[in-house]
Design a protein that fits this description.
The structure is a single chain. By secondary structure, the protein is of the alpha/beta class. Helices cover 35% and strands 18% of the residues. A five-stranded parallel beta sheet has the order 10-9-11-1-12, sandwiched between helices. The protein has a four-stranded parallel beta sheet with strand order 3-2-4-5, with helices on both faces. The chain has a three-stranded parallel beta sheet with strand order 7-6-8, sandwiched between helices. Helix 5 links the parallel strand 6 and strand 7.
């Protein structure tokens, strides 16, 4: 059956907060400032943040992105991404006489410090997150003999601890809050003595953006999340919208939108991942405006005023 276009008023609900968090803003500014201070090229290990647009723009300015620190010429400057790196990476960089600038998000650094603390206490650490993600690799590197990665509730039955009375858990900072609670509860059923971090590891920005998307989804026929496919927090926002019962798509920008998606949508919710620059959201708003969505309402669930200073020598 062919779709029938709606004839009533069309509206966009724009999430607030959305887009850059303080950690991402700091990381991007770190590369920009390093290029200003030291000149090109400046090497960056992995993507500085998980957004193709950001990486491409920085590459145009002279940043060279590499997979491993061993690819960087001896003595050159290398920036470590917002996701953090393991101690082994720092050691490799020192062995190659690299000049390092650490753009790790301070909230990720907090998780690293917690991993060190739990490891010193002789605990098995269940690290909840996505295996292979840079943040998980960096955190796991703090205590590789004690950390066990747990991706979901289905993994819990297969994990063990040397001493069930000495167990702790940590989480990736960009996870969906509700999903993480489910994994923690499953772990606690197996390991009642398990302890956790002093403060929630899921960062304030991820939580705020998830709450904003929940608010949008409740009022929208369709939700768009602007972000890259490899962005963990962007993918979680899509999941949050879908769990609320609303159709949702992850789009890189307006060129990813299939016009058929919006033919029957009167209200479209729009947000973006914490690594997405707002210019991409503005382009989506303009795209929708040209198709009749001229009414834009901002839906605010929190106000963010967090700021992290740049690494020493760049501020």
């Amino acid at each position: 059956m062919p779709s029938i276009a709606i004839s009533g008023p069309r509206k966009v609900l724009l999430a607030a907060p959305r887009g850059y968090c303080a950690g991402v803003d700091r990381a991007v500014q770190t590369v920009e400032r390093a290029l200003e201070v030291h000149g090109a090229p400046v090497y960056v290990r992995k993507e500085i943040v998980h957004n193709k647009h950001v990486v491409e723009e920085l590459a145009k300015r002279g940043a060279i992105f590499v997979e491993q620190e061993t690819e960087v010429p001896e003595g050159a400057i290398v920036v470590f991404s917002a996701h953090g790196v393991s101690p082994a990476v720092h050691d490799n960089a020192a062995a190659h006489s690299l000049r390092t600038i650490d753009a790790t998000c301070p909230l990720v650094t907090k998780v690293h410090v917690e991993a060190q603390r739990f490891a010193r206490g002789g605990r098995t650490i269940f690290l909840i997150g996505h295996a292979g993600h840079e943040e998980i690799e960096g955190t796991a590197g703090e205590a590789p003999d004690r950390i066990v990665v747990v991706e979901g509730p289905g993994d819990v039955a297969n994990v063990d601890a040397a001493d069930p009375e000495r167990v702790a858990y940590l989480t990736q900072t960009t996870l969906a809050v509700d999903d993480t609670v489910e994994v923690v509860e499953a772990l606690r059923q197996r390991f009642p003595a398990m302890v956790g971090p002093k403060h929630d590891d899921i960062c304030y920005a991820s939580q705020n953006r998830q709450e904003a998307v929940k608010a949008l989804a409740a009022r929208s026929d369709l939700v768009f999340i602007v972000g890259s496919q490899n962005s963990s927090n962007s993918n979680r926002l899509v999941e949050v919208a879908r769990e609320a019962g609303t159709v949702a798509y992850l789009i890189s920008d307006e060129t990813s939108i299939d016009p058929d998606w919006i033919t029957q949508a009167e209200v479209i919710g729009l947000s973006s991942g914490a690594s997405t620059p707002d210019v991409l959201v503005e382009r989506v708003v303009a795209f929708l405006h040209d198709r009749g969505y001229g009414d834009v309402e901002e839906v605010t669930v929190a106000t963010e005023d967090v700021h992290f200073p740049l690494p020493a020598g760049l501020d």
